[in-house]
């Protein structure tokens, strides 16, 4: 076996918020990390899809946007000198010559580590698109002047525009509340009266609707698009009884979730359940010794898909990995208020 390009205590697959916090938790236990991510920047979905999306359930912050959270997590991890391998996938996995695992990336980089933490979020992801004729004519990734979008990169791109939001989950509700502050009008189209989002945010949505700051178009579904040369002019919707409405619009935001694919991780022989990695909730251990998984990619009874849950899983994984890295050293847990952050 050839000599690896790098050696590390842990390889973390995924540089989203949960992966970044795992660097910190490992560092507090004197373990070094290399981080691999398919994107060419850290932050995962928060940075790539929702950099300005407000997040309300991070302890200590009444509200923080995705990009700001990523920046603070990078700063928190920095004392432990993580090595980032960005813009590349983990494409090879094999047992290490002296134990542990060796990973290989799509750029030919090899890393030997005692343990792996999979923090890949939704894996390889892409938006679920509504089945509308001519949809592709209006899609405008990177062009704020186009008509159909699956994320909001900059809220300012929609200032003064007539926006229709389709969906009933957290993203739809969060962005309806946020964009109501800057757009000319916003209409939320959902096929049922109830929304699948945080109760407090749903309450704010209904208050904005009652105050006339936005319109709830329920129960309706998307039916067709109207416009010319890729510029949207209206969104046609239809209710369950066949009733139709025409909603004037410059932009349609579709929030129907992400299509999740595990990518190369699916070939690692880990126990899976509905495209999620099965883990022990007490340790985040997978079915393969030395491989752990945290965040949205995991499943176990009672799993909550929240960033703060992933943060907790990162701490548990780091503590479970410590005896693999330091087999002859007992771990005496201390609070960070006692130890501080000193790096290596």
What does this structure look like?
The chain is an alpha/beta fold and 344 residues long. The chain folds into 2 domains: 200 residues, FAD/NAD(P)-binding domain (3-Layer(bba) Sandwich), CATH 3.50.50.60; 128 residues, 3-Layer(bba) Sandwich (FAD/NAD(P)-binding domain), CATH 3.50.50.60. 22% of the residues lie in helices and 29% in strands. It has 7 helices and 22 strands. Strands 1, 2, 5, 6, 7, 8 and 21 form a 7-stranded mixed sheet that branches. A 5-stranded parallel sheet has the order 10-17-11-12-13, with helices on one face. Helix 5 links the parallel strand 12 and strand 13. The longest helix is centred in the C-terminal third of the chain and has 19 residues. The radius of gyration is 22 Å and the shape is elongated. 38% of the residues are buried.
Q: What would you give as the CATH superfamily of the largest domain?
A: FAD/NAD(P)-binding domain
CA-based shape:
elongated
Question: How many strands?
Answer: 22
Q: Mean of residue pLDDT?
A: 89
Question: Spans of 5+ residues with little confidence (pLDDT < 50)?
Answer: none
CATH class of the largest domain: Alpha Beta
Q: Note the run of SSEs as H and E.
A: EHEHEEHEEEEEEEHEHEEEEEEEEEEHH
Distance from first to last alpha carbon? 30 Å
**Estimated share of beta-strand residues:** 25-35%
Instruction: Return Rg in Å.
Output: 22 Å
Q: What's the CATH architecture of the largest domain?
A: 3-Layer(bba) Sandwich
Major beta-sheet overview: 7 strands, mixed
Structural class per helix/strand content?
A: alpha/beta
